[in-house]
Amino acid sequence: MRRKCLIRPVALLFAAIALMVGYGTPVCAAGQSAESEPIEVVVTLPVLKDLAEHVGGPRVRVMSLMSGLESEHSYSPRPSDLVAVRKARVLFEVGLGLEVWVSSLVKNSGNSGLLVVTTSKGIALIRDHESASEAGPVPQDDHRAGNPHVWLDPENAKVMMRHITEALIKVDPAHAVDYRNNQAAYLRQLDQLQTELIERLRNVPDRRIVVHHPAWPYFARRFGLEVVGEIVRQAGAEPSAHHMQELIMAIRKNGVRVIASEPQLNQKIPEVLARETGARVVVLTPLPGGVAGTDTYLDMLRYNVTRLAEALEAAKPN
Ligand SMILES: [Zn+2]
Prior knowledge:
The protein has twelve helices and eight strands. The chain is α/β, with parallel strands linked by helices. Strands 2-1-3-4 form a four-stranded parallel sheet, sandwiched between helices. The chain has a four-stranded parallel sheet with strand order 6-5-7-8, sandwiched between helices. Helix 9 (217-223) links the parallel strand 5 (208-211) and strand 6. The site of zinc ion (ZN) has 7 residues, from loops.
């Protein structure tokens, strides 16, 4: 009891001194400039830019190496990317062998203080096809270890965002509260949209689709879609005549009505498939910014689900 009474006047005295010292001085110039200088962040994919900007707000300056118009598999870094990585404090990647070019970019940048964060860590992966067991043991960094398009499930995006938040707190612990609050506000929005979009598709009776490349297993699982075929197994590859013939037969036989194309890949093949089968093509984007009106992650999710639902509803039985 007595001790508490002693502490108070001392604390008051310190507060008074702090006030007197601070009062009238031009607000600590050095501290001020450090405060206003944002953390330089580099990300590989635009989806990570959006998430990092939501967490970091004005405290971060984020540059995405890819724009959303390139395929996430065939990107080759430009000299300006090297410059960006060189001056960055943090780099966020998806991982899972998606951005195979990142490690050499980081190495060549000579930026030893760079914090590289793999945002897919801890996400339960969906394996691609059956090839893993047939081909023997799969190296950890190989794409076949798990499908890398994890961000297309909002639940996975939440995990990725938590990695981003923790990394920013590590670099800038003074603003931990801001980062956590920003994250919480965004996750509330994401939750709300997720519920709304699941509801949107629930009422669509036929939810079977053929997709362009294997970008959609996480998305399909979350939103209750059934992927019955893929035009190519790998982005950038061309389907064989035999595979096309098989797909055409499968679409006709099962009466699949919608083919999901992607703006980053060759548009002609899905169109040929549609012409041959009477199915309808809908353009979905696995990356924010791939189509007008999809610049943010939330906009991209809303666009993909809405367009798909409309296409599935509008398509006539063939
Ligand atoms: Zn892909």
